[in-house]
Design brief:
Layout: H1 2-22, H2 26-38, H3 43-48, H4 65-77, H5 91-110, H6 115-123, H7 132-140, H8 143-165
């Protein structure tokens, strides 16, 4: 399992990096990378991540979309369902626990889960992506070359690692 795990973690990083580079949208790129790595595609979860690009609504002021996307896939696999809203089994608390582990791992890696704070770390300043001039500066500084692409790759890796640790899916064979 050790060698297979390393291959999956490498695949998650590469897919996250490439999806962010090509398609942009850190939350959806993370969701797609994790889902594709583990063969657990769920289009409604992917669609629900649309608004969480660049700290939410391209504002930069919220949680990194990579972190949010990882949490969304964790909840996809182990979350409260609407048909059991009362959740007497307390499934949601396991999901909370896993999201906390994701956040802790993210903070260990980046020192924060806040989009603009990650910008400070990666670029030395935040960018307001919703503004075209700022977006162009973000791009010129390597936003989708090696900065946010790296964050999404690592976010995807962190989420896959947690999913494998918790045995939430069978290890894919291909």
């Amino acid at each position: 399992m050790g060698e297979m795990r390393e291959e999956l973690l490498e695949k998650a990083y590469k897919l996250g990096f490439e999806y962010e580079k090509i398609y942009k949208g850190c939350c959806q790129s993370t969701i797609a990378a994790v889902q594709d790595t583990l063969n657990i595609r769920e289009d409604s979860v992917f669609k629900a991540g649309t608004g969480w690009a660049a700290g939410g609504g391209l504002t930069g002021i919220g949680i990194c979309g990579g972190c949010m996307g990882g949490s969304m896939v964790l909840s996809q696999l182990l979350g409260r369902v609407r048909s059991n809203f009362e959740d007497p089994e307390r499934v949601r608390f396991k999901s909370y626990e896993l999201t906390k582990k994701l956040i802790d791992a993210f903070i260990d890696e980046f020192g924060t889960i806040n989009c603009w704070n990650i910008h400070y770390i990666k670029f030395g300043r935040p960018y307001y992506i919703n503004d075209l001039e700022e977006f162009n500066k973000f791009e010129e500084a390597g936003g989708h070359v090696d900065k946010c692409t790296d964050v999404v790759g690592k976010a995807s890796q962190i989420a896959v690692n947690l999913i494998l640790d918790e045995r939430l899916v069978e290890t894919p064979k291909d």
